[in-house]
UniProtKB/TrEMBL annotation:
<keyword id="KW-0472">Membrane</keyword>
<feature type="binding site">
    <location>
        <position position="174"/>
    </location>
    <ligand>
        <name>3'-phosphoadenylyl sulfate</name>
    </ligand>
</feature>
<feature type="binding site">
    <location>
        <position position="182"/>
    </location>
    <ligand>
        <name>3'-phosphoadenylyl sulfate</name>
    </ligand>
</feature>
<dbReference type="InterPro" id="IPR000863">
    <property type="entry name" value="Sulfotransferase_dom"/>
</dbReference>
<dbReference type="InterPro" id="IPR027417">
    <property type="entry name" value="P-loop_NTPase"/>
</dbReference>
<dbReference type="Pfam" id="PF00685">
    <property type="entry name" value="Sulfotransfer_1"/>
</dbReference>
<feature type="disulfide bond">
    <location>
        <begin position="283"/>
        <end position="295"/>
    </location>
</feature>
<feature type="domain" description="Sulfotransferase">
    <location>
        <begin position="84"/>
        <end position="321"/>
    </location>
</feature>
<dbReference type="InterPro" id="IPR037359">
    <property type="entry name" value="NST/OST"/>
</dbReference>
<dbReference type="GO" id="GO:0008467">
    <property type="term" value="F:[heparan sulfate]-glucosamine 3-sulfotransferase activity"/>
</dbReference>
<keyword id="KW-1133">Transmembrane helix</keyword>
<feature type="active site" description="For sulfotransferase activity">
    <location>
        <position position="93"/>
    </location>
</feature>
<feature type="binding site">
    <location>
        <begin position="300"/>
        <end position="304"/>
    </location>
    <ligand>
        <name>3'-phosphoadenylyl sulfate</name>
    </ligand>
</feature>
<keyword id="KW-0812">Transmembrane</keyword>
<keyword id="KW-0325">Glycoprotein</keyword>
<feature type="binding site">
    <location>
        <begin position="93"/>
        <end position="97"/>
    </location>
    <ligand>
        <name>3'-phosphoadenylyl sulfate</name>
    </ligand>
</feature>
<feature type="transmembrane region" description="Helical">
    <location>
        <begin position="12"/>
        <end position="33"/>
    </location>
</feature>
Length: 337
């Protein structure tokens, strides 16, 4: 409406504002006189109805209202705490911390710093308790949390589903033999008197040593069982299985898959990583909190003890058929030896 003279535009807009104020006065009067208990609600709905009308009318007269609307919007949409949109549910010692730290580089991802353990330990505290532990996010940002024990918590799939049936799930998996050694190394670092790995992983039954499937570090590597449980609740396309070996060998490529899965723009690329030969792992050129190169802490990427090759062979034989079941169920051949 560029042909409406500026003066006429102003007058018409002023009339409109006066009429709007009269209407507002009438509404307040009506509510107060009739002692309506819903004064706030009525006002709110009327104001928002006429606010959008006012915007349309002002732009019809040629006023540029978009800037004003945007400023109002960004001022209104302050950061809030939300329940997670995506969860890293496991698997313990497969690279879950690395995945979360890498994801933190993305401007559209905000994640809880520590493991919350809501769906395994603190479910009785309720969703409000959980929400309060989440980081502040802006509209459009993804809220995330990682607790690897969710993977093996029997009640977790049902509970997560109750929170949000369309939540996105991520699970990092790696060769179960390396995973077991990593798990053992962590326990041994806390208890130096712990028996050797071979002794704990293999039990001597009727004179010959066999893998002890009940020992937690061995049991946790049987991935098919928990996967079946999660797939009973969630569609396969709701769960991304991140390749733990690829996350070390080619973090950028693995992170591209993760970003696609989460519906994020591919912001995290090879430019973010460098290989730290002293640590033997990829590190970040800058992290969310610092602009200098940064590796994961000392508890990630520990030196593993040397394991007797005969014990390794037994473990590989033990896992081979179980891995096949996992490959079939997941639809991915991870090619573990
Ligand atoms: N970039 C990078 N830096 C360091 N470590 C890395 C990295 N990527 C994957 N990993 C592997 O992550 C293993 C630890 O796994 P998690 O983070 O899932 O452990 S935990 O369950 O949270 O305790 C850890 O296991 P260990 O090598 O036994 O320490 C690593 O092998």
């Amino acid at each position: 409406m560029k042909y409406v003279p500026v003066l006429a535009k102003r007058t018409m807009f002023t009339y409109f504002i006066i009429m709007f104020l009269l209407y507002l006065f009438y509404t307040i009067n009506f509510c107060v006189v009739d002692k309506q208990p819903t004064l706030k609600t009525i006002l709110k709905s009327h104001i928002s109805k006429y606010k959008s009308g006012a915007f349309r009318f002002a732009s019809f007269l040629g006023f540029d209202v978009e800037d004003y609307k945007y400023t109002r919007l960004s001022r209104n949409a302050g950061p809030v705490r939300r329940l997670p949109d995506a969860l890293i549910i496991g698997v313990k010692k497969c690279g879950t911390r690395a995945l979360l730290e890498f994801l933190r580089l993305h401007p559209d991802v905000r994640a809880a710093v520590s493991e919350i353990h809501f769906f395994d330990k603190y479910y009785h505290k309720g969703f409000e308790w959980y929400r309060e532990r989440m980081p502040l996010t802006l509209e459009g940002q993804i809220t995330m949390e990682k607790t690897p024990s969710y993977w093996v918590t029997k009640s977790a799939p049902k509970r997560v589903y109750a929170m949000n049936p369309s939540v996105k799930l991520l699970a990092v998996v790696r060769d179960p033999v390396t995973r077991a050694i990593s798990d053992y190394t962590q326990s041994a670092s806390k208890r130096p008197s712990l028996a050797p790995f071979e002794q704990l992983a293999l039990s001597n039954r009727s004179g010959c040593s066999a893998v002890d499937p009940t020992w937690a570090p061995v049991r946790l590597g049987v991935y098919a069982r928990p996967l079946r449980r999660w797939l009973r609740r969630f569609r396969r396309d709701r769960l991304l299985l991140v390749n733990g070996e690829r996350l070390v060998a080619d973090p950028a490529a693995e992170m591209a898959k993760v970003q696609d899965f989460l519906g994020l723009k591919r912001v995290i690329t090879e430019k973010h990583f460098y290989f730290n030969s002293a640590k033997g792992f990829p590190c970040l050129l800058k992290s969310e909190s610092s602009s200098s190169p940064h590796c994961l802490g000392k508890t990630k990427g520990r030196n593993h003890p040397r394991i007797d090759p005969a014990a390794l062979k037994r473990l590989r034989e033990f896992y081979r058929p179980l891995n096949e079941i996992f490959y079939r169920l997941s639809g991915i051949n991870f090619g573990w030896p």
